[in-house]
């Protein structure tokens, strides 16, 4: 992904990233309407018996209330519910823990964030819940609303779970404040945020085109898709070339992250602060190169290559357009064959394939990712009676998914079922990604760890047709086969030294916490106005001045001191 020389490019970290590539869309959970409030709330903390087996069963039932993130990516199978499912039954059977859903909301929109904020304001937190918002985590920890998990983790975590603390040191650092562990981090690596250009294979074929390698080729392809008849329905111009959604800078399909990366801007939501090649603290969205990127998008919009109604469409609405065959390509993260392009495959039997982002002559492409110290956190309320219960569930999860039988792996992990567990960490595919590529080269799964063999079988089965209609096979193939997104990461992005990691860890300037929402709105509004032609491209200079004046400059100054150059 780029030939840049930024100090934050993480040359030594990227080696470990080979082993931790994510297999599913991020940070969301099964679809379902909000659950009600649980019958009981956690009382004051109490210490568990001194001789309790870390993997053993409670002698008396223990109730653990939880908040649940729901989203379209995960399925409830066989009549299961958020309260009664394979994970809740396993946890009851093995640990004598009764799980109770305190609240649930869709995490693919702002619904979960808003619901959690309301719960926090009420002071009635469930025993355990999750957030990806480092600001929320920091607020709760500083307000004394979270349990200190340091001792229970050290006492109850299994040896294999304890090993994660070394392997994912940055993640644990992000969950630690003043030497105290206040959450269990997701323990993945944020390298999975790298964008790709996803293109419908049938439209490529119908237009006699090749995957674009440059921005110019991408624009030319978008023009074919938007003005010709790529879907073969006999009507020219009823389709669009490139997808955009109204959030623009979010990490989802239809964002501008992949396009701006080609112009040497490592874009990533509102948190992409880093040191440039001169060691200066900077912010991605205020970089001068953004003018060229926005100008490119404005030209595409003016030519009709982008849907004129993108300003009113969130990701869900965009996915409807993608599924219905209105759009030919979109920038997005590596998990596209899990969602949303699994919908296209089911409906039309068409593969939407990931390709490395097209580059722009004269620029070393740069791809922004979040700090590994930031990610999904599983927290425990300071009022929870049995905080160690979460660690015991973590042990059970780790054993069941990573070290059990193939049958257990398929039952408790596949079809996104791992998201039904109150706490889930490392995904098997992330651990075994590099090993899988070696296995493909030798044509055998011999020597693979037990949890990696189903992944190998999925990919081989999809390619030979025996699992052509299997959702897990399609999702895994799109990410981890030799023609999936993973090889592009291993064989191009990493060798090109393209990754720029945000410097923003768990410590955040107060001025940024206060102003981040308004700065975020300012950014999206300005970019939308420039793309649609409501403002000229040169208005970007006015935006930069506004951003700096509205707390941006003070944020940069404080971050410079908070995260000194090494």
Automatic annotation (TrEMBL):
This is Extracellular solute-binding protein. InterPro entries: Bact_solute-bd_prot1, SBP. Residues 31-61 are annotated as: Disordered. The keyword Signal applies. Residues 1-24 form the signal peptide. It comes from Paenibacillus psychroresistens. Pfam families: SBP_bac_1. It comes from the Bacteria. Keywords: Signal. Residues 31-49 have a biased composition (Polar residues).
